[in-house]
Amino acid sequence: MTASATVVRTPRPRSAVPTRPRIGVVKLASCDGCQLTLLDLEDELLAIADRVDIVEFAEATSRRSAGPFDVLLVEGSVSTPDQVEELLRLRAVSHRLITIGACATAGGIQALRNWRDHDEIRAAVYPRPAFIESLAQARPVSDFVAVDGELRGCPIAPDQLRELLTALLTGRRPQLPDEAVCLECKRRGVVCVTVAGSIPCLGPVTRTGCGAICPAYGRGCYGCFGPRESANAASLAAWFERGSPADVARLFAGFTAWSAPFRAAIDTYGGPPGAPVAGEGSTDA
Amino acid sequence: MTDRFLPVAELDTLFDALAADGRRIIGPTVGDGAIVYEELDGAADLPWGRVVESAPGRVRLGDGDPARAFDYGLGVTAWKRFTHPPAVPGARFRREDDSLRVEAAAGSPPRLAFVGVRACEIAALRIQERVMRAGPLGDADHVARRAASLIVAVECARATDTCFCTSMEAGPEVSDGADIAMAEIAGGFLVRSGSAAGASIVEALDLRPATEAETAAAAAQVRAVREAIGDPVAAEGLPDRLRNALDSPRWAAIADRCLACANCTLVCPTCFCTSVAVASDLDGIEGTTERRWDSCFSSGFARVAGDASFRPAVADRYRQWMTHKFATWWDQFGMSGCVGCGRCIAWCPVAIDVREELAAVAPIGLPSGPPPWPASPGSGRAPEIGTTPPPVRAIARIRSFARETADTATIGLAITDPAILAAAPGQFVLVEQPAFAAPPISISRIRPDGLELTIRAAGPATARLIDLPLGTEVAVRGPLGRGWPISTARGRDVVIVAGGIGLAPLRPVLDSILAERPRFGAVRLYLGARSPADRLFVDELSALGGRADLEIAEIVDRAGGDWLGRIGVVTQLFDQAAWDGSRVTAFVCGPERMMRATAAALERLGVARDRTWVTLERNMACGVGTCGHCQLGPFFVCRDGPVFSLAELGDAFMVEGL
Amino acid sequence: METSTLTSLLGETWFGANLPVTARARLAAVGTVVQLREGTVVIREGQPCEAMGIVLDGRVALRLGIPPSHPRTILTIDRGDVFGWSAALPGTPASSTCVAATPCRAILFEAFGLCAALEADPELAAAVYRQLLACVARRLATTRLQLLDLYGSGAESRR
Hints:
The complex is a heterotrimer.
Chain A: E1 22-27, H1 33-40, H2 42-51, E2 53-57, E3 69-75, H3 81-92, E4 94-100, H4 101-106, H5 118-125, E5 149-151, H6 158-170, H7 181-188, H8 193-197, H9 213-216, H10 233-243, H11 248-252, H12 260-268
Parallel strand pairs in A: 1-2, 1-3, 3-4, 4-5
Chain B: E1 4-7, H1 11-20, E2 24-31, E3 34-39, E4 50-55, E5 58-63, H2 80-83, E6 87-96, E7 99-104, E8 112-117, H3 119-132, H4 140-147, E9 149-154, E10 180-185, E11 188-193, H5 196-205, E12 208-209, H6 212-229, H7 238-243, H8 250-257, H9 263-267, E13 274-280, E14 286-293, E15 303-304, E16 308-309, H10 314-333, H11 343-346, H12 354-361, E17 392-405, E18 408-414, H13 418-421, E19 428-432, E20 440-447, E21 450-456, H14 460-465, E22 473-480, E23 493-499, H15 507-515, E24 523-529, H16 538-544, E25 551-556, E26 566-567, E27 584-589, H17 592-604, E28 612-615, E29 631-632, E30 635-636, H18 637-640, E31 643-645, H19 646-649
Parallel strand pairs in B: 2-8, 8-9, 9-10, 23-24, 23-27, 24-25, 25-26, 27-28
Antiparallel strand pairs in B: 1-11, 1-12, 2-3, 4-5, 6-7, 6-14, 10-11, 13-14, 15-16, 17-18, 17-22, 18-21, 19-20, 19-22, 20-21, 28-31, 29-30
Helix pairs in contact in B: 1-5, 8-10
Chain C: H1 3-11, H2 14-17, H3 21-29, E1 31-36, E2 41-43, E3 51-57, E4 60-64, E5 72-77, E6 82-83, E7 97-100, E8 104-110, H4 111-120, H5 122-148
């Protein structure tokens, strides 16, 4: 062939994230622990602050912004009608919305109330429940708005947050593996607590990212990063059942209980501890 | 050499001799309620009097004879932790203005002595060595680590309930492969050296020869182990039985139980699959890579851009694992991938027993059909070390840029390295830059002083590559893979069928043919694209349109009213053609589904299956067949392909989830 | 035109070449060769299909109306291929509008005469319907591949 490649540079758009992105950090129903992970990135915090504008971060700065945001990190579950409204507004002013932590990604520990009668639990918690505006269920952000990415965990892992921010700034895809905790456990050389100690462990069905902390300290994973891809919770639950059947639902009823695979296992084994009737209230509101 | 006898009380003299040889000693010890292989200070750290009771999904330490140190069975993770570590640093990339500096991680591995290696584990080390040393140079890290390690084997005196080395012909007797082989008998150890390195250490111990009674005791001991294990897996014809069981309903049944947690693969002493993780500073100026253990049980393992996975279902992944271990390993390496250590059984959290599953998936006596793909050479498809030229890494400067479509561009790279310039049509390169994974890119033109790469922005790394300013440097590794066998088409008619960006790796084919046009018969080029705006090399092809010795036809899937050309799919261009298929050699590239339709149409026209060449897309990562990602049945697509004939592929081209 | 000429023209198309010799001649007897100027609408979508055609030269576009947009060409057919196959199924309206995308030469089989010939001659019918089914199957396969949008985003990553 004779034709040589044309050396013409047509103008092309740069990556979607601007060189100095506006970042917001907001919370819904949560404990603030995940937001604090950002402050825990001590070594990099200044460097990060140098490259982004953190325009909304109530936990750390008095600067406030209603948006728009290039990247919005959302912590917490959606538990009140006001939060739904606020979330819809935030979505509209955010280029990328990223949920952080078990509450935002799976409903959090407070989603255990989803199995209980709403009025009853309100009455049990608050002296004047009539003043409490809350939704019947605590639910993940993705039930209400489109989510562009998520950081799992209770709380989120500093390494993953660092990777997310670095990836955003460099324009690459964040490396947030969706595989089982077991891979990290084995890479670390941790002896399997289930096989060697009959300790029930959710590691095989839970997404990695924590560094396999719990098994490394000789206890079972309690699933705070939520289900991995292809989580076969039913098979693991059936295996646990051979040990102590009564505990199966309790094992899954943790920080990510409301995630679909774990919820199904909980329902199959009689609902979370203290739930009135097996499975009641677990259908989508 | 005759066996020697080392009294148990003098075991530390062996440790001392190994230390005097400049080695750290790795051996079994008790940790976290199991036997782990860790650095030992002396014989006192050994698991004296401990035995492993293992059953499917259950491992416990029990008490045995306190005077014996090696009755434990097996450690949790295999010796590969030291020869093929869970994390190995790769390269460091640093951008300085336009230039790129690359430093490959270097450093000599520690000198180690592995004490207590079992027969099955020696077999496993040998298998991994065959895998990691296949190809041009072998994996440098693995080669160095193996060379720096010394194996002190201790023959099994006790079987566990998960052992099946006998069926895999990997034990329990330690025959060869150990530098020093020992057997633990009453009062001490029988010691025999198996290499010069081992001999010099044994000689330094100045041991008395073993008595006949001692030798006989050791032989009886291991014989008892063999009898205790029996022959739990019917290995006869197992590879063929499994190749014929790709459609077994059992895969789905296993998937109901299988957690796809990857534990079996990570404790397996032969599993070698890895992934590369990338780290960088916040600005992406400096990046590093690290190679980590991975597993065919994680969905990301077979994932390509767009989040599509070649093995979406757990049943696909279990089938991949089992058929690889017991069948396609033979295709690739001329040996089994299993040594029967039983770790995958013991450490499966839900007690899936591979011995049972093998019997269920591939029972003896099941009627067997034709093999799904042609037999491989007896020594396997993987090349022996040193038989192919090694790929190199070179710095390349981007010197030209041509936009092809909205998301695709051709970049020209100035390259001086003759090894890379020797690339053949159909080969590919890995293009490296700081902070990004290195995507495999097929070469779309080979020039005397550089390469052209036509890149579609399918993900961030490729998007960045076609967004780099002219003059920027990238690193290029290659040339990789096996290209198009153009010379076999001399004297024949040539049909080239391209779909979408599949035209890119075919452009060098056209270049080659046109460079010696008289040597070929009729040449026909059939092009399919999504829309008129998605066509590649438009000006170039229209310039060729006037040639009488080249027939070009194109068609698009969809178009607006201003398109006067054909609309439909690429097979329409030739499936009713009148040309003589028996004279044709075909080169085909495009999405796999399009290639299947094309292959079927060509076959109907009489084009021979061994003259129809396709190039496959898989998750190619290392490019040299050592990371496992791109496996397709008996092939590693990156090394054995990416160009294959239909005849070579057999059913591997059509089995979903393979 | 002489039937014998038409028979040989038919035999040069893949549709006709795959018909038994006798069937080819009998089919030719009910056909006429026409020249179509670019833009000629031969068949209209939704209308009774008044003729079936086989392209001898040029290209015919099959269009679907998608109001309020302009009709979209979803397929073009070249030498040897069939358009207006609905004409062989009495009572079936045309499934697309057939337009000559370039100047065309085609054999047209007027619907009434075609159906009458097929009804009168089971052997001819068997041969022609078999060929038509092959055509329609080919077209269905094409449509399925188009539906997959194989070259669309995410369909491939390498290269």
